[in-house]
Amino acid sequence: MPGACAVAIALMLGCAAARAQDTNLVLGLNSGVVIRGLLLGRNEPSVQAAATFYGAARWLAGIGVASLRSPSDDAGAWLITGKVGYVWTLSEDWGAQLDYARYAYPSSESLRPFDRDELNATFLYRDLVAVSVSGLRNARLDDGGSRASVAYDLTGRYPVRPGFSLIAGVGYQDLHRRSGFGYAYGHGGIGVRMGQARFEMTYIMTDTTAKAQYGEGASDRWAAGLTWAF
User: Fold this and answer.
1) Which of 97, 149, 172, 174 ranks highest by number of CB atoms within 10 Å?
2) What local confidence, expressed as pLDDT, does residue 108 receive?
3) 88 near 96, Cβ under 8 Å?
4) pLDDT of the residue at 20
5) Is 188 left (phi over 0), alpha (psi -120 to 50) or beta?
6) pTM for the complete prediction?
7) Contact at 8 Å (CB) between 143 and 149?
8) H-type helices in 35-150, by residue range?
């Protein structure tokens, strides 16, 4: 569930930067692209990059790219993410963010049906706990006759000592309108910060419904990622 963790990190940076214009650049290498417990593409390393601009008026805009390959062919593909949003500092400890994001696979015919739009509302307590609700609209119309679904995520970080934290999260995606089911997912692991670099290793889990519906893509698995922030 690294995608959910990224929401919390982005929100933390947004609250900190809301008082002045700033640009945040992140480069990363991950063991795979996993979103809400599901592996996108093949189980192989992914190179990722993101840039986010935070305006003085608390607006933000960002773009990200991640490499992957479709399970159905050998051609490489890119997941392109665009985002615009607004950040609130509610108090010294609490922050909130509302954003719209577009996920697209312009270079892959087989992955293009999985293009989607998301509207996300996130509340953050310091940089320790994040709660988010996301409304999703997929490009592909499933058997349920609807493109819409909703996801709920709770992620947290517990500092053990400077530069070392325990991280965990749980979530649920409600696909009943689209596909007649919903599934739960979660992760737990460690995070290590080394200057501008951050390393995370997590174990990702999904429930039996996800495994029955998505097969190998929903298998429990270890995931690792290394990112550099500039």
Assistant:
1) 97
2) 85
3) yes
4) 58
5) beta
6) 0.88
7) no
8) none
Residue corresponding to tokens 């063991």: 31
C-alpha angle 96-30-128 in degrees, rounded to nearest 5: 30
Q: What angle do CA 36, 122, 60 make, to 5 degrees?
A: 105
- What does the alpha-carbon distance between residue 174 and residue 184 come to, in Å, rounded to a whole number? 9
* Alpha helical stretches, state H, 42-164: none
- Cα separation of 97 and 95, whole Å? 7
Contact 71, 43 (CB under 8 A): no
Amino acid at 151: A
Per-residue DSSP letter, 113: G
Contact 6, 38 (CB under 8 A): no
Q: What average pLDDT does the segment 8-37 reach?
A: 71
Q: 130 with 152: CB under 8 angstroms?
A: no
